[in-house]
């Protein structure tokens, strides 16, 4: 199993394959679909056989991109009932895009690999990713299916209920990823996956990462179905919230003892680290054979919208991890980022900048 100790600096890991070279033009291929070339905000990656120690290997997020249709309501409608929304708007989102923009806003070189339709929602997402500093060289447009979207029902207390329509996220992928996609995975510093794209794609990515010694974090959010064993055995860190952990293991997760037992089942399935997000109760990192590390929440001044908070936490943890911070510090950094996220409406619009996270940590 690949080492996932954050004490290992990124520049000490061997990178024998070619690195990345992106352009600064925005292009769309004709026909069935095309690759989006990124307007890069970070230094160019140069094809080379040796690592440039001044350029850190990127965070690579492979996952979903949605147009989130927000409706603000006082309460959820009952069966057969129609209610009126206070307001409605459409914003870029999706677990993969959220996490990628979080990485970009935290000033870490971040690539997003995903699929969008050739439609207005696809352009909305592309603009949001590039506006967040994300490199979109591996984001493809597909013409056969529309961009994925979600209906987000936001209640007055900041809690939300979400319905997802997969679209290009589920139907826009080839059977086998091409070599350029797998190459960037193999040269990543860390890879982030979620479950809003086909398991077959996640398995290909996780295998490629494992073959190159690149750590993989799987955010368990997304489809309500068992995680394939073929995927789990190539994951270094599994990151569910408590309800996802309960569904995945078939066990209760209401107390620390119950959570510990459920995590032990994950260890039995081959996952050595499990990062459990507990909402208002904070988070716990379980490493097999070691004492769990607990992190309480960092109180927000006012909770406006919890959408994207879990994505922010996971992505911020990944950034701190690949930068070589101790695990307890990674948790604290992630908690601060999530605290800032819930104070702004929308998913991608709420992703915090690095300076804001550091300022918050210094103030407590």
From TrEMBL:
One of its GO terms (cellular component) is cytoplasm. One of its GO terms (biological process) is D-ribose catabolic process. It catalyses: D-ribose + ATP = D-ribose 5-phosphate + ADP + H(+). It is found in: Cytoplasm; Nucleus. Pathway: Carbohydrate metabolism; D-ribose degradation; D-ribose 5-phosphate from beta-D-ribopyranose: step 2/2. GO terms for molecular function: ATP binding; metal ion binding; ribokinase activity. PROSITE patterns: PFKB_KINASES_1, PFKB_KINASES_2. Keywords: ATP-binding, Carbohydrate metabolism, Cytoplasm, Kinase, Magnesium, Metal-binding, Nucleotide-binding, Nucleus, Potassium, Transferase. The active site is at residue 311. Its EC number is 2.7.1.15. Activated by a monovalent cation that binds near, but not in, the active site. The most likely occupant of the site in vivo is potassium. Ion binding induces a conformational change that may alter substrate affinity. Residues 59-352 form the Carbohydrate kinase PfkB domain. Requires a divalent cation, most likely magnesium in vivo, as an electrophilic catalyst to aid phosphoryl group transfer. It is the chelate of the metal and the nucleotide that is the actual substrate. K(+) binds at residues 305, 307, 341, 344, 346, 350. The keyword Kinase applies. The keyword Ribonucleoprotein does not apply. InterPro entries: Carboh/pur_kinase_PfkB_CS, PfkB_dom, Ribo/fructo_kinase, Ribokinase, Ribokinase-like. ATP binds at residues 241, 277-282, 310-311. Its cofactor is Mg(2+). Homodimer. Catalyzes the phosphorylation of ribose at O-5 in a reaction requiring ATP and magnesium. The resulting D-ribose-5-phosphate can then be used either for sythesis of nucleotides, histidine, and tryptophan, or as a component of the pentose phosphate pathway. PANTHER family: RIBOKINASE, SUGAR KINASE. Belongs to the carbohydrate kinase PfkB family. Ribokinase subfamily. Belongs to the carbohydrate kinase pfkB family. HAMAP family: Ribokinase (MF_01987). This is Ribokinase.
């Amino acid at each position: 199993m690949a080492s996932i100790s954050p004490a290992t600096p990124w520049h000490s890991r061997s990178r024998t394959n070619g690195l990345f070279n992106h352009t600064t033009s925005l292009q769309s291929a004709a026909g069935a679909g095309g690759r989006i070339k990124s307007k890069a905000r970070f230094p160019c990656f140069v094809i080379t056989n040796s690592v440039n120690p001044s350029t850190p290997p990127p965070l690579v997020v492979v996952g979903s991109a949605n147009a989130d249709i927000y409706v603000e309501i006082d309460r959820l409608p009952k069966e057969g009932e129609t209610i009126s929304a206070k307001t409605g708007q459409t914003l870029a989102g999706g677990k993969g895009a959220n996490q990628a923009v979080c990485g970009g806003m935290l000033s870490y070189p971040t690539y997003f690999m995903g699929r969008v339709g050739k439609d207005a929602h696809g352009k909305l997402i592309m603009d949001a990713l590039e506006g967040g500093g994300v490199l979109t060289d591996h984001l493809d447009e597909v013409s056969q299916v529309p961009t994925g979207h979600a209906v987000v029902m936001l209640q007055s207390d900041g809690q939300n209920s979400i319905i997802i329509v997969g679209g290009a996220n589920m139907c826009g992928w080839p059977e086998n990823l091409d070599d350029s996609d797998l190459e960037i995975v193999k040269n990543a510093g860390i890879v982030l996956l979620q479950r809003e794209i086909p398991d077959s794609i996640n398995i290909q990515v996780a295998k490629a990462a494992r073959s190159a010694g690149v750590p993989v974090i799987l955010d368990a959010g997304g489809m309500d179905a068992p995680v394939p064993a073929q995927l789990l055995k190539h994951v270094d860190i599994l990151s569910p919230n408590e309800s996802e952990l309960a569904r995945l293991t078939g066990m209760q997760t209401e107390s620390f003892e119950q959570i510990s037992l459920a995590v032990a089942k994950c260890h039995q399935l081959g996952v050595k680290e499990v990062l459990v997000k507990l909402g208002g109760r904070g988070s716990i990192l379980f490493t097999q054979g070691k004492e769990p590390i607990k992190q309480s929440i960092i109180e927000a001044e006012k909770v406006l919208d919890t959408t994207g908070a879990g994505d922010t936490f996971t992505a911020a943890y990944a950034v701190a991890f690949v930068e070589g911070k101790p695990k307890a510090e990674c948790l604290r950094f992630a908690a601060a980022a999530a605290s800032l996220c819930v104070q702004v409406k929308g998913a991608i619009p709420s992703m915090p900048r690095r300076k804001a996270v550091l300022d918050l940590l210094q103030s407590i």
